[in-house]
């Protein structure tokens, strides 16, 4: 399967380069972006034209002759130097089994040129197969300023005033900007949120004149007709949501449909690449590429594999998986914590989640492949149809199922420091299923606010009243009777997982009862309420617990996580909830313990 995926990634690269051709005839389109500003003016930003060369079977690079094989980054940089001279530095690189990629940025006086990048691709033999560059040749008649006249503070003030923006607090950085007239402006790059449309931008303020001479807009307009994340499935209804409703600009600053710096107008982006088995027609283009609108009307009365329903499935799964990325990013699962992203700062690049919509390899399930290599390899999420109803129903259409799958990437990468080998036993595999259900449960509760209500996994896919698990997750023992000791009855990870998810449902309820609820907990991890505390502790505990943890280990990791983050403030509250579920102090070998540590005298009381 992974060979096919690697081919798919290559196929993506091919798609992106062929895009350049038809547009290049529109001179302004290929070299300018334009943004209308609140004062009625239009700011045009110049992007130097790229050269692009392909070498089919490949050509050698300058280090090819060496006895010892050079690293792909050394080889790529040597080739780029041979084409462009000095004056650049490595920006990023990644390797797949079919190709390796190296990106560099132009530098003058050791300051990067913001709009000048180059890249080289090498095949598995190490030969160079393509090269592109939009590096700028310096005009000897136009001197390049080497130090700024304007201070950083003045640059921020100028950008805020000229663009009617709000400074986001990040320190401005020096950057050159190549201008259309061949001059090179030394600028302060200032990150702002524009007041009139909420877009996040980098404004380039000329460090001599104080004028804004260019802007990069990180916000792409995107509209998707989907079941909102606060709802479960198609029976709850669809809404056409716009960019500002769905994309978190902090977690996804270049939006959801930008891949390697280019808006794909399709279900391809930095976090998620959604595709269907036929790899040559793998991704769904926007129904209206001009506005990046995905607007398929799902019809539950017909087969899920009709063209329109497939389009709806693409949109729903892409939306829910990106939402999972953005939420978890806010809560600290960033590039440097081994998350899944094509590009980013820190960590290794080149690992978005590849999401196989309506995957045909199975039914009545979904799965997630995390490779053992720490970072830099894509995750693979496969969503299946469910064949228990007529017509069949599609796991892609159920938010909880998509969130569940995405959370496997989280738990596999964080347990054991990203090696993806530490949830292999039946018990720890069961915990893995449990966290995934618990994350879906958490998103539903948190999106709806208030106290923690019953939650059913996959109700629409298997309309039994308890979905695809034995019982709803509930504070009522009459609704869900499972406790820790139930684990010994089962020998299958989803069966075991539902017990851990029920434990965490109780923990979540206890935290919300004590610390209250908050409307903004999906995107604001800084407050202290039951929702935010729950997700922080769940994520923190993953990195604390041992490889292949047991239920009592996982519980102890929560207690320690609370000590680390909140100075043990929730210790008794957590112990009471765990003890209620049989995971008290003496819990071991699937024998319930309801004992809490000394000094925790309270009785657990289930929320009304
Ligand atoms: Zn699962």
From TrEMBL:
Signal peptide: 1-20
Pfam families, per database record: FTP, Peptidase_M36
Annotated family: Belongs to the peptidase M36 family.
EC number: 3.4.24.-
Keyword Calcium: no
GO annotation, biological process: proteolysis
Keywords, in A-Z order: Hydrolase, Metal-binding, Metalloprotease, Protease, Secreted, Signal, Zinc, Zymogen
Record-level Gene Ontology MF annotations: metalloendopeptidase activity; zinc ion binding
Class of enzymatic activity (EC top level): hydrolase
Domain FTP, first and last residues per copy: 100-135
GO cellular component, one term: extracellular space
Active site: 405
Annotated Zn(2+) binding sites: 221, 404, 408, 433
Cofactor section: Zn(2+)
Keyword Zinc: yes
Protein name, entry field: Extracellular metalloproteinase
UniProt-listed CDD domains: M36 (cd09596)
InterPro entries: FTP_domain, Fungal_virulence_M36, Peptidase_M36, Peptidase_M4/M1_CTD_sf
Annotated cofactor note: Binds 1 zinc ion per subunit.
Localisation per UniProt entry: Secreted
């Amino acid at each position: 399967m992974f060979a096919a995926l690697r081919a798919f990634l290559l196929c993506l690269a091919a798609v992106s380069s062929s895009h350049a051709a038809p547009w290049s005839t529109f001179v302004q389109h290929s070299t300018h972006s334009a943004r209308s500003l609140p004062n009625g003016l239009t700011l045009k930003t110049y992007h130097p034209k790229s050269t692009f060369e392909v070498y089919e079977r490949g050509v050698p690079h300058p280090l090819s002759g060496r006895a010892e094989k050079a690293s792909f980054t050394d080889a790529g940089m040597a080739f780029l130097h041979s084409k462009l001279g000095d004056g650049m530095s490595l920006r990023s690189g990644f390797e797949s089994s079919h190709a390796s990629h190296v990106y560099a940025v132009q530098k003058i006086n050791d300051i990067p040129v913001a709009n000048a990048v180059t890249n080289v691709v090498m095949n598995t033999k190490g030969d160079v197969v393509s090269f592109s560059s939009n590096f700028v040749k310096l005009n000897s008649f136009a001197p390049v300023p080497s130090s700024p006249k304007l201070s950083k503070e003045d640059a921020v003030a100028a950008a805020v005033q000229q663009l009617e923006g709000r400074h986001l607090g990040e320190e401005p950085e020096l950057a050159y900007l190549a201008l259309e007239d061949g001059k090179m402006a030394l600028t302060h790059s200032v990150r702002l949120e524009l007041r009139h449309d909420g877009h996040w931008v980098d404004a380039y303020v000329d460090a001599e004149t104080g004028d804004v001479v260019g802007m990069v807009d990180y916000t792409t307009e995107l509209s998707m007709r989907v079941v909102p994340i606060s709802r479960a499935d198609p029976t709850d209804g669809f809404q056409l949501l716009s960019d500002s409703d769905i994309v978190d600009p902090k977690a996804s600053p270049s939006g959801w449909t930008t891949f390697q710096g280019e808006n794909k107008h399709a279900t391809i982006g930095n976090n998620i690449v959604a595709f269907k088995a036929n790899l040559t027609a793998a991704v769904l283009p926007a129904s209206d590429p001009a506005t990046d609108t995905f607007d398929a009307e799902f019809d539950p009365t017909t087969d899920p594999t009709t063209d329109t329903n497939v389009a709806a499935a693409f949109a729903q799964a892409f939306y829910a998986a990106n939402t999972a990325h953005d939420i978890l990013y806010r809560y600290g699962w960033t590039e440097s914590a081994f998350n899944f992203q094509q590009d980013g700062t820190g960590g290794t690049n080149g690992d978005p989640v590849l999401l196989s919509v309506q995957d045909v390899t199975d039914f009545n399930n979904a799965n997630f492949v995390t490779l053992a290599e720490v970072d830099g390899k894509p995750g693979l999420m496969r969503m299946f149809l469910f064949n228990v109803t007529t017509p069949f129903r599609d796991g892609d259409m159920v938010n909880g199922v998509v969130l569940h799958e995405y959370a496997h990437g989280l738990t596999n990468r964080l347990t054991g420091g990203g090696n993806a080998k530490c949830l292999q036993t039946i018990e720890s595999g069961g915990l893995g299923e449990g966290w995934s259900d618990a994350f879906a449960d958490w998103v539903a509760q948190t999106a709806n606010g208030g106290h923690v209500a019953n939650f059913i996994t996959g109700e629409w896919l298997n309309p039994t009243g308890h979905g695809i698990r034995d019982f709803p997750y509930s504070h009522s023992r009459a609704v869900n009777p499972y406790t820790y000791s139930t684990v010994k009855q089962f020998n299958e990870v989803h069966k075991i997982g539902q017990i851990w998810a029920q434990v965490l449902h109780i923990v979540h309820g206890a935290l919300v009862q004590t610390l209250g609820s908050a409307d903004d907990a999906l995107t604001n991890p800084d407050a202290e309420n039951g929702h935010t505390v729950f997700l922080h502790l769940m994520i923190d505990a993953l990195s604390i617990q041992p490889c292949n943890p047991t239920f009592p280990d996982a519980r102890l990791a929560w207690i320690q996580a609370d000590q680390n983050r909140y100075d043990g403030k929730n210790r008794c509250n957590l112990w009471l909830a765990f003890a209620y579920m049989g995971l008290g102090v003496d819990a071991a070998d699937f024998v319930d313990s309801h004992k809490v540590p000394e000094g925790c005298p309270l009785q657990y009381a289930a929320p009304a």
